[in-house]
Amino acid sequence: MKPVLSVEGLTVRLTTGGRSFDAVSDLGFQVAAGEVLALVGESGSGKSMTALSVMRLLPPAAEITAGSMAFGDLDLAAATEHDLRAIRGNRIGLIFQEPMTALNPTMRVGWQVAEALELHKGMDGAAARRRVEELFDLVRIPDPKRRFDDYPHQMSGGMRQRVVIALALACDPDLLIADEPTTALDVTTQAQILDLLRDLQSELGMATILITHDLAVVAETADRVAVMYAGRIVEQATAGQLFAAQRHPYTHGLLGSIPHVTAPDEATTRGRLAEIKGTVPALWDLPEGCAFAPRCPRSTYRCRKSRPPLVEVVPLRQEACWHPVGDAR
Ligand code: ADP
Ligand code: MG
Questions:
Q1: Which of 91, 207, 218, 229 could form a disulfide with 31 if both were Cys (CB 3.0 to 4.6 A apart)?
Q2: Residues 75 and 69: beta-carbon distance below 8 Å
Q3: What are the phi and psi torsion angles at 128 (to 5°)?
């Protein structure tokens, strides 16, 4: 089956503080209908830049300098603003970390969703209102008829994020991009929103890109995982493959910090990183070889001199490492 989105060679150049550097380098991934692809990595690894590239909503300091993003018959990297306006919020839905960035504080929440339906689906006010009430019900907002007339500030963070999810799903998108959708919420609400997203995904069957720095979230939701480091994918696999065996030392490091995925004792006895020492390198001052080498317990002279390419080792599994851990499966 043809993927809903197929990204190849995506490179995003940032110019800031008198410097110019690639925030995203030669990125490639695909996501199919009904599938959840997780993009994971520490803060600053280029996850949001990737999401904003797909939506073509990059800040003025950032520019796509190479690559293609095939979405249906269109290459999003080359699409006109006219084409993009017909796609954003219609065929691609977006959920950000902070619900207030997506909501207008001066407008009743119901009408914000209704507006999208009027714009993209040509619904009239009454039909749009009925559909919004259905959508609010779908995202489990209690008492949808009454909540329709709330302003965002009258709702809790969790309820606001449900409105944003309703907005993202209103036009029945082919692709949903959720960038850290639960990070700004308290732990209990996080779990509820994740449950909701998972249920909606299996019910509606859109392709989903879920961005998170939290591998516990990935374990519960993703079909496939792409691990990003310093703007590049360093390991990509099915969730089953990845949780059965992490090949890249960076992925090991990420997993070592989640006790209920890999027991801490097991991690130590197998010589895994309990946590990743050091910090993500500055993107304008990357080392010559592998960007992770300075923090990697397995790094050698070769790693410091030459960057390992991303290669497919077994079907569905790619890695960029000269000294991966264990056997690929
Ligand atoms: P992530 O979402 O993985 O935390 P981002 O994609 O936000 O990472 O950031 C990638 C890099 O781009 C980081 O070095 C970050 O500092 C930089 N960056 C992000 N947003 C901006 C911006 N608006 N202007 C300049 N630099 C930015
Ligand atoms: Mg981000």
A1: 207
A2: yes
A3: -65, -45
Mutate to test the pocket of ligand 1, among 10, 14, 43 (most ligand atoms within 8 A of CB): 14
The rounded Å distance from CA 228 to ligand 2 centre is: 12
DSSP letter at 248 equals: S
C-alpha–C-alpha distance, residues 125 and 128, integer Å: 5
CA-CA-CA-CA torsion sign (101, 102, 106, 110): negative
Give the pocket of ligand 1 (CB within 6 Å): 14, 16, 23, 41, 43-49, 59, 61, 283
> Tokens standing for 77?
């990297």
Q: In CATH terms, is domain 5-222 a member of 3.40.50.300?
A: yes
Dig out the tokens for 96 from the structure: 């950000």
What does the DSSP assignment read for 127-183?
HHHHHHHHHHHHTT-SSHHHHTT--GGGS-HHHHHHHHHHHHHTT--SEEEEESTTT
Please give the helix or strand (H or E) that residue 209 lies within, else none.
strand 207-212
Cα(42)–Cα(212) distance, integer angstroms: 9
The whole-angstrom separation of Cα 114 and Cα 110 is: 6
Residue owning the nearest CA to atom 15 of ligand 1: 44
pTM, to two decimals:
0.92
Cβ atoms of 201 and 36 closer than 8 Å? yes
What is the amino acid identity at position 191? A
Q: What is the tens place of the pLDDT at every residue in 25-43?
A: 999 999 999 999 999 998 8
**Inter-residue contact 51 to 211 (CB < 8 Å):** yes
- What is the number of the ligand 1 atom nearest to the C-alpha of 211? 2
Domain borders along the chain are 5-222
Category of 231 on φ-ψ map: left (φ > 0), alpha (ψ -120 to 50) or beta: left
Q: Are 224 and 236 in contact (CB under 8 A)?
A: yes
